Amino acid sequence: MSANISGKVVVVTGASSGLGEATARHLAAQGARLVLAARRVDRLEALVAEITAAGGQAIAVRTDVTVKADADAMIAAAVQAFGRVDVLVNNAGYMAIAPMSARLTDEWDKMIDINIKGLLYGVAAALPVFEAQGSGQFINISSIAGRKVFSPGGTVYSGTKFAVHAISEGLRHEVGSKVRVTVISPGGVNTELKHGSSDADSLKALDAFYEIAIGPDAIARAVAYAVEQPADVDVSEIAVRPTAQDF
């Protein structure tokens, strides 16, 4: 149990699996009060049941981060349930690896909608709450591919994650001294993210790459580290990758 996490209200998008699910479990064990957001409500409700059975506090909110009204409702539900929001973990993401020449524009659109617009809708929903409280923290999940272009195949995905870095740094500068902004950049982590592409050759290459993948708990611990810092300490960026990953 962490004194600097216990009691904090943390909203986690993409909480039905992977990094979001692991983060929810880890923060719940540290005493956080969780608002779990995703589209797969059955999985959210199972996670809520697990957390509450262990003595924690959590609620589930069906949320499609690409719909602004859903993002607004997610934050409103958190305030209604717990009276405030201390942290928003913008974790929902989508990765479709394929060559640009495949012209999978539907997948490009989906990455832009989830990875960029979904994050922005979360920021738009939570920022007024943070400003009214005089405190708050955004934790934006980017990628190592947001630091180095993952090419061939990951060009558009990298573009969306470079955008996460740019938006986060601009946001940090704009919000001033009361609201913290952290970017966490995972490398190869074993989650559903690797299954997003419809390109068979790219999926085969990803399977080989992800043989070195680490577990999502590694990212959950990084999130907790950023959250548990004192209010005057803003951990701006954390990169977490397998030791064997070469980029």
The N- to C-terminal Cα distance equals: 34 Å
Structural class: alpha/beta
- CATH C-level class is Alpha Beta
Written as H for each helix and E for each strand, in order along the chain, the element string is: EHEHEHEHEHEHHE
Shape: globular
Give the DSSP E fraction (strand runs of 2 or more residues): 15-25%
CATH architecture descriptor: 3-Layer(aba) Sandwich
Largest sheet: 7 strands, parallel
Q: What is the helix tally?
A: 7
Number of strands: 7
Give the strand line-up of the largest sheet: 3-2-1-4-5-6-7
Rg (CA only): 17 Å
CATH superfamily assignment? NAD(P)-binding Rossmann-like Domain
Helix-residue proportion: 40-55%
CATH T-level topology: Rossmann fold
Integer tally of domains: 1
The low-confidence runs, each spanning 5 or more residues with pLDDT under 50, are none
- Taking all residues together, what is the mean pLDDT? 96
